[in-house]
């Protein structure tokens, strides 16, 4: 049941990423997106059966050079080294998707048995 819920919530986040794309600002060129976003965050690790989820979490976005680090609350490991392409506020790879704009951060990302999720606003 948890796996079905996780798949469904990831699908909903990805759908909302595609439907709410905005080209107003470029995260590569400015620091407008750096800061703290509050909302729902989640994490799971299939190797050690860790599952963390809260509706009252936060993600602090830090820009380091041309990469972003996403520092989560509630003991969730950071997601580091995400590189956004110029003129894109939507990062899509085989591992998942991340969307950043002035007021919203959406994450649905999986790598090496770990899954991060976020639906946060400023």
**Largest sheet, spatial ordering of strands:** 4-3-2-1-8-7-6-5
Count of discrete domains: 1
Rg for CA atoms: 13 Å
Main β-sheet description: 8 strands, antiparallel
Number of strands: 8
Mean pLDDT: 81
| Shape designation | globular
- Number of helical elements: 1
How widely separated are the two ends?
31 Å
Classification by helices and strands: mainly beta
Description:
This protein is mainly beta and 122 residues long. It has one domain (2-121). 15% of the residues lie in helices and 51% in strands. The protein has one helix at 2-19, and strands at residues 35-45, 50-64, 67-72, 79-83, 90-93, 96-100, 104-111, 114-121. Strand 6 and strand 7 form a beta hairpin.
Index terms:
51% strand; globular; mainly beta; eight-stranded antiparallel β-sheet; 1 helix; 122 residues
How are the SSEs ordered, and which strands pair?
Layout: H1 2-19, E1 35-45, E2 50-64, E3 67-72, E4 79-83, E5 90-93, E6 96-100, E7 104-111, E8 114-121
Antiparallel strand pairs: 1-2, 1-8, 2-3, 3-4, 5-6, 6-7, 7-8
């Amino acid at each position: 049941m948890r796996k079905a819920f996780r798949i469904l919530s990831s699908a909903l986040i990805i759908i909302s990423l595609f439907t709410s794309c905005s080209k107003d600002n470029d995260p590569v060129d400015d620091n407008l997106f750096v800061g703290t976003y509050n909302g729902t965050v989640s994490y799971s690790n299939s190797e050690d059966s860790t599952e963390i989820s809260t509706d009252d979490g936060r993600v602090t976005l830090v820009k380091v050079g041309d990469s972003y680090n996403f520092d989560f609350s509630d003991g969730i490991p950071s997601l580091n080294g995400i590189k956004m392409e110029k003129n894109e506020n939507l990062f899509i790879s085989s591992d998942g998707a991340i969307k950043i704009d002035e007021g919203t951060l959406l994450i649905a990302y999986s790598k090496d048995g770990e899954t991060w999720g976020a639906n946060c606003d400023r």
